[in-house]
Structure formats: C-alpha cells, structure tokens
Amino acid sequence: MNRRPRWKQFFTYLRSCHEKKHTPDWKIFDEQMKDWEWQWVNSHENYTDKPIGNAVMEAQAVFRKYEQRIKQIYNL
Fold it and tell me: What is the dihedral angle through the alpha carbons of 41, 44, 47, 48, rounded to the nearest 10 degrees?
C-alpha cells in the first residue's frame, strides 16, 4: 500500500494551518481524509494484469541494494 499520498495530505494540512496560524482541527482533517479515501475506493482505475519488466532482475537489484544491511542486521 502506498502511504505517500496520505502523508502528503497530512503535511500539506499542517503547513496550511501553520501558515494561517491555526491550530490543526483533527476532526476536520479526519473528515477530509475520509472523503478522499471514499473517492479513491470508488475510483475506476485500470491496472494491468500483465507483469512489467523482469521480476528476477528486479529481485536481484533489491537484494544487492540491501545485502549489506541484511547481513548487519542478522549478523551474517
């Protein structure tokens, strides 16, 4: 699940309150988020059912990127 859009809205709301020198009203923000999420749930975006790219190559790239960190965490 991509949480970035939610965090973006959260920080946008906080920035707006700060600029207007208002205390955030969490009930209002909660209602805005509920409305936004309801619109997202009811949207009709098309997603492909066909994979894009090479899954093995992507997995290898992710492994290489995090290999040292994994070894540190698990003392390998």
Answer: 150
